[in-house]
Amino acid sequence: MSLPTHFTLNTGAKIPAVGLGTWQSKPGEVRKAVAYALKDGYRHIDAALIYGNEVEVGQGIVDSGVPRKDIFLTSKLWNTDHPNVAEGLEKSLKSLGVDYLDLYLIHWPVRLVPNESHPLLPVNPDGTRAVDRAWNMSETWRQMEEVYKIGKVKAIGVANWSIPYLEDLEKSWTVVPAVNQVELHPLLPQHELRAWCHQRGILLEAYSPLGSTGAPIAADEAIQAMAAKYNVSPAAILISYHINRGDVVLPKSVSEGRITSNHKELVSLEQADLDVLNGLAAQGKAKRINTPLWGFDLGFADWYGPVKSV
Ligand SMILES: NC(=O)c1ccc[n+]([C@@H]2O[C@H](COP(=O)([O-])OP(=O)(O)OC[C@H]3O[C@@H](n4cnc5c(N)ncnc54)[C@H](OP(=O)(O)O)[C@@H]3O)[C@@H](O)[C@H]2O)c1
């Protein structure tokens, strides 16, 4: 069985199954990484204003020579811009040097109130994050729908949204999010969240598929054993897992060899092996790696949930 190269969003647009992540890709590295990836056949780049490197990402796109229209480009509304979606979007478009995005996501269901402490991560006098808990996320989504309807972005979605947050948003959305981008890997398979999203036509995108910095999940013995069985790298098992499940996957690398293997060394996994991967978290290995200190629970109760095929 050959693996899908693309999935279809609820807008009807095709999205490449593998996208290049750019978080923590340093200045001086990310431009080359993006240019190399696009020349090597990637057609999907995952960016964000908070990564602080969108200018270089845009330069890498130009360097690659690949036409803009052939690239699926995502960026994300930062937390300080919830009341001003059009302005937040404009900053990313300008930095990236493009006039539209293929996908724009609300980066977190968390509004931060700008103050003089820090331009993007403002804190209160006591050092806690300057979060506005009273902010109505439906208003942010209403403004996301506006930039979608005028065509500045071809699709809109969310990132880091748990079921309770989505249930709340569902009460007022007129455009169903195309995507929910969340931490997703065999140690955090999020079975219930996937089922909820799939029932509504929301595609999941897997971030930190290798466990983020240093790819720690690749060292897991079950992953290593499966890599030996399929004669591929552990990273290839972790990336292939998502495509086999029907989710987009966003591995980050600035190394040419890894950028190549991360989209070319993919394998079709037997159902029994998918079941093993789907069950690892429930066997006591559940782990969430990205836990920013927003100061409150984001409602992700489902860390490993029941194992079921969805
Ligand atoms: N929406 C959100 O809140 C959110 C949060 C986190 C991430 N993301 C997105 O998801 C992307 C991926 O997540 P991530 O950056 O956290 O981590 P990741 O892709 O799970 O892992 C990246 C780490 O693995 C290494 N690596 C890459 N390919 C490898 C391979 N084949 N073998 C061994 N090591 C390998 C990378 O090093 P080298 O670069 O040196 O290869 C880097 O240290 C991000 O870049 C970002 O675009 C979104």
UniProtKB/TrEMBL annotation:
InterPro entries xref list: AKR, Aldo/ket_reductase_CS, NAD(P)_OxRdtase_dom_sf, NADP_OxRdtase_dom
Domain NADP-dependent oxidoreductase: 18-273
Tagged with keyword Transcription: no
This protein's UniProt keywords: Oxidoreductase
Protein's recorded name: NADP-dependent oxidoreductase domain-containing protein
Organism: Sporothrix curviconia
Phylogenetic lineage: Eukaryota, Fungi, Dikarya, Ascomycota, Pezizomycotina
